[in-house]
């Protein structure tokens, strides 16, 4: 046999191994999540109406809700979509001012959604630490109805929509093969004066399924002449994620 043939065969095998490794590294990995966000809602309208609705009130009066996220990762790049939809009719949890005098309790109806679309680039990939740089957009679309049965008061409505550009960081501290500490912080602005988020907690993963317990705070601030001065959602998150 010619000595050239073994060299050619070896070179071809090496090329196949390298191509296979490159292909594996560039496979697209997905993560789908469904979660329950025990968020209380706090805010204030430009006319002085205030809302402070705890999660216990929301869950008792919930009409419809959906909370979920989907990620697609290829190499160092990740695309992320996250959506929250709420439709709540709660007795209490809000107050209305009467003239410049006392405040009265009011019934509250809240309907709206929050959409996050962002991209991430992996800056650090180590055995115990992962760190991503984030950039994207966030949409808030919220409608709030206040009403009271007390004579002399009338129903009020406040609605707010905003598109904001956001940027931030997210990461994961890996404790062992199953336990980790995920976190995320971001902030931005656009149609709102300021939009920001902070999230962190603990995650347990076994094979393709991960369960996470987190705390999430999401807030917006607006101009004084807007219908809503500010709005905040905050509370614990219980999430189930499937990796495939």
Automatic annotation (TrEMBL):
Residues 1-25 form the signal peptide. It comes from the Bacteria. The keyword Signal applies. Keywords: Signal. This is Outer membrane protein with beta-barrel domain. The lineage of its organism: Bacteria, Pseudomonadati, Pseudomonadota, Gammaproteobacteria, Chromatiales.
């Amino acid at each position: 046999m010619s000595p050239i043939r073994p060299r050619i065969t070896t070179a071809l095998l090496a090329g196949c191994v390298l191509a296979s490794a490159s292909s594996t590294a560039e496979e697209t990995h997905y993560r789908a999540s469904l979660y329950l966000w025990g968020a209380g809602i706090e805010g204030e309208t430009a006319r002085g109406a205030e809302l402070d609705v705890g999660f216990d009130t929301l869950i008792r009066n919930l009409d419809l809700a959906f909370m979920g996220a989907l990620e697609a990762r290829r190499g160092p790049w990740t695309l992320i979509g996250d959506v929250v939809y709420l439709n709540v009719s709660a007795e209490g949890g809000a107050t209305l001012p009467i003239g410049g005098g006392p405040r009265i309790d009011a019934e509250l109806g809240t309907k709206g959604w929050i959409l996050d679309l962002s991209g991430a680039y992996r800056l650090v990939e180590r055995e115990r630490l992962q760190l991503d740089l984030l950039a994207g957009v966030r949409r808030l679309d919220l409608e709030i109805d206040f009403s009271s049965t007390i004579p002399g008061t009338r129903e009020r409505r406040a609605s707010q929509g905003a598109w904001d550009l956001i940027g931030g960081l997210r990461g994961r501290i890996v404790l062992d093969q199953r336990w980790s500490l995920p976190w995320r912080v971001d902030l931005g602005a656009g149609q709102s004066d300021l939009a920001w988020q902070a999230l962190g907690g603990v995650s347990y993963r076994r094979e393709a399924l991960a369960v996470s317990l987190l705390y999430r705070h999401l807030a917006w601030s607006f101009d004084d002449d807007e219908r809503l001065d500010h709005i905040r959602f905050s509370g614990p998150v219980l999430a189930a994620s499937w990796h495939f």
